[in-house]
User: What shape does this take?
Amino acid sequence: MDSPHAYNRVAGHSVERLAALSDGIFGVGMTLLVLDLRVPESELVHDERGLAYALLAILPQGIMYLMSFATLGIFWVGQQTQLNHLDRSDRHLTWIHIAFLFGVTLLPFSTKLLAEYYHYRTALAAYWLNILFLGSMLYASWGYAFRNGLLKADVGAGTASAVCRRIIWAQSLYALGAALCLVDTRLSIAAIVAVQLYYVAAPGYRRAVGSPNP
Assistant: This one.
């Protein structure tokens, strides 16, 4: 009879299947974000001015939607960059990425919480903790893959270190932005958006990692 250890040695090796699962979950997560954007009720709108006021009332939800869509986009590219540099996977690495995807599924909830209670620090903290969890899982997956020889042969120590530094730097900026909620949660949200815009532009990443910009 085969032992559990024999099964563990062969389970979770397909990088392609992991990428496919990730694409599906990210696609669903991005779609769920937009469901919280509601068209103003027709009985509450009687003229152009009324429609303008109604749209202003849902502006916080719109901002949170854009912010979280960018968040998912950044983390999707970050994960895909890692998967593209993998020579193979194993059971442990697969479960690290599944834990990462768990964080992805939580983002629509933390987004809705922040949209409804953006003036509360607790809601901002919950959103930041979601981002921190995602970054931590990416850091853990990359570190595990490097230590266990799962990366492609052309990925050197310099590239591996560059990816780790990028994750740490990004999470530090997110933490700084979240800390601004001690002054004003709106200032904190603006700072997080600024960090996202910076990483969408991705200055220097192509030179550091040798791959397309995330």
